[in-house]
Design a protein that fits this description.
The structure holds 2 protein chains of 2 kinds. Chain A is mainly alpha-helical. Helix content of chain A is about 65%, strand content about 5%. The two termini of chain A are about 60 Å apart. The termini of chain B are far apart. The chains are: A mainly alpha, B mainly alpha.
Chain lengths: ~325, ~50
């Protein structure tokens, strides 16, 4: 199947995920997508932060109205002129103190309203995400893969299920990936073995090795048997070669590297050998021995390894 | 007498409001907490795929 060449739009970044939640007041539907206008009715979405803010302001306004009413009643029913003035002054001081107090605690009031709003509207938010997910599926079905993936990526910030991750991976596997794309790998790791994810990860490995993090390597090691069956030994070999990217990874996955060391290309063995050689104070365990053995067996007369050999001989003498 | 009752009522309301605000502040948490809670709640129950 030919892969589609697409251009992804930039991912919307917010400090907190809940800032992506917005409401269409006309449809009474929430959404987490990038759209500014509701796809169903065309009206402008209102962010959940704005909603929380207006709720806390409305609450303050209602409270102040009640207080003014209470003070007015107090002033109205004052028996003497003296008590009337007294009630008026005390009432004014009270109103001012009340407003100042509420403003001082405005932030926590806002927190409270926002939390309440999200809790009360949770069902509606879920239904909204469901609707967003349907929109994404429609895009994918209609071969609008970039739009579909864009939507799935936004939903994926909230929904952490394997099914959601798999939907994203399936779309990504139909796209011709490029190094300039804003790709994600660690966030798509499923909880069980998924052939589609491994296929995607191997593709990502070819274009951007930095995305292959510790968690991804652990995933490959955990499901190595299934991966060998589905993708052959070369796939694991490329992951093992990639672990030489960082000293930390070499130490962490030394057993895994050791297992595939015999099949490493020369350039990778050279890298490993030079790292081990230049860090003699680090405890490399049996990896150092095995590397030395491989070098002695395969590359003893290789000119690229000569500088190390010569230095070694000087040191032994 | 009227002034005392009226002032007392206002002071009681003010104390009650301060107490409520302080309690809310104590349990309100932070944005990070709201964020994590939302994700947990959304992922609970029937799965969205």
């Amino acid at each position: 199947m030919t892969k589609q060449a697409v251009q992804f739009s930039k991912k919307r970044r917010t400090t907190y995920r809940f800032q992506k939640v917005k409401l269409c007041k006309k449809c009474n539907r929430y959404s987490v997508l990038k759209d500014e206008y509701c796809p169903a009715c065309g009206s402008l979405f209102i962010g959940v932060e704005t909603l929380g803010n207006s709720l806390s302001k409305r609450r303050l306004f209602t409270e102040v109205s009640w207080i003014i009413l209470f003070v007015s009643i107090g002033v109205f029913f004052a028996p003497t002129r003296h008590t009337l003035y007294y009630s008026l002054i005390v009432g004014l001081i009270f109103c001012l103190t009340y407003i100042v107090l509420t403003f001082v605690f405005m932030k926590s009031e806002y927190f409270h309203e926002l939390k309440k709003l999200l809790r009360v509207d949770l069902k509606k938010i879920k239904t909204g995400i469901w609707f967003d997910s349907d929109l994404a599926k429609e895009d994918v079905k209609a071969e609008r893969l970039a739009d579909g993936y864009d939507k799935l990526r936004e939903i994926g910030d909230f929904i952490k299920s394997d099914a959601m991750k798999q939907s994203q991976v399936m779309v990504l596997n139909r796209i011709a990936l490029r190094s300039d794309m804003e790709l994600e790998l660690e966030g798509l790791i499923p909880t069980s073995y998924d052939k589609h994810f491994v296929k995607y990860a191997l593709e990502v490995l070819k274009i951007n090795r930095t995305l292959m993090t510790k968690k991804c390597i652990v995933y490959f090691i955990r499901y190595r048997d299934a991966i060998v069956v589905d993708f052959g030994i070369d796939s694991l070999l490329s992951v093992a070669c990639m672990t030489l990217r960082m000293k930390l990874y070499i130490l962490e996955f030394s057993e895994f590297i050791e297992e595939y060391l015999d099949y490493f290309p020369k350039e990778r063995v050279l890298r490993l050998y030079s790292i081990i050689y230049s860090n003699p104070d680090i405890e490399w365990g049996s990896l150092a021995e095995k590397t030395k053995r491989v070098v002695a067996m395969k590359y003893y007369y290789d000119p690229d390894f000569k500088p190390f050999m010569e230095r070694k001989q000087v040191l032994t003498n | 007498m009227y002034s005392i009752v009226f002032t007392s009522l206002l002071v009681i309301i003010l104390c009650w409001k301060t107490h409520k605000l302080i309690t809310k502040k104590r349990v309100s948490g932070d944005f990070k907490g709201i964020d994590d809670e939302l994700v947990i709640m959304v992922n609970e129950g029937e799965a969205i795929d």
